[in-house]
Automatic annotation (TrEMBL):
Organism name: Panicum miliaceum (Proso millet)
Residues annotated as catalytic: 130
Residues of the full protein shown: 60 to 231 of 278
One GO-annotated biological process of the protein: extracellular matrix organization
Residues given in the record as Ca(2+) 1 binding sites: 104
Free-text remark on how the cofactor is bound: Binds 2 Zn(2+) ions per subunit.
Name of this protein: Metalloendoproteinase 2-MMP-like
Residues bound to Zn(2+) 2: 129, 133, 139, 147
Keyword Protease carried by entry: yes
Amino acid sequence: LYSYFPGGPRWPRSKRSLRYAIAQTAATPIDRATLSRVFARAFARWAAATTLNFTEAASAEDADITIGFHAGDHGDGEAFDGPLGTLAHAFSPAGGRFHLDAAESWVATGDVSRASSAVAVDLESVAVHEIGHLLGLGHSSEPGAIMFPTITSRTRKVDLASDDVVGIQSLY
Ligand code: TQI
Ligand code: CA
Ligand code: ZN
Ligand code: ZN
């Protein structure tokens, strides 16, 4: 079963269009065009289940949600921890912050199960989960759900389960 993010935050019902920016932050080996494509696909999965829509903004000043890669202690009291452990975190909806650990071996193209690194993490899978938090979902007790709080490294999991869909439709 799905749950709501602690405190039950959500974007106002009047706000159907959310804008996100991919900020120039810590270095990643993934090029900008690939990042745009992966995040667009991740947002589209939630847009398909709701009446929300998402567009990429050119700058953070112009966006509701800011996505960035950060290494170690990056000033929000939730330091990243190097490979694995915490992969990313999102704070919803206040501030719309979505941070990814720059120390992960992110895989943005191709089959993560065939990645050369034993600790490879599929970027789109993590993005779909964190967007769920950005929209106000907490964790699910359903192992097949995107919002289930465990993912195995070198695994791709990007399709919303019916539990995720019922949860998000109860919010929007
Ligand atoms: N990051 C945690 C997460 O997004 C952060 C977190 C811990 C959290 N406790 C929370 C967020 C309570 C909201 C409410 O769940 S993570 C997964 C998963 C992480 C974990 O880096 O551990 C994914 C990021 F679910 F697979 F374990 C992405 Cl997909
Ligand atoms: Ca980490
Ligand atoms: Zn952070
Ligand atoms: Zn989570």
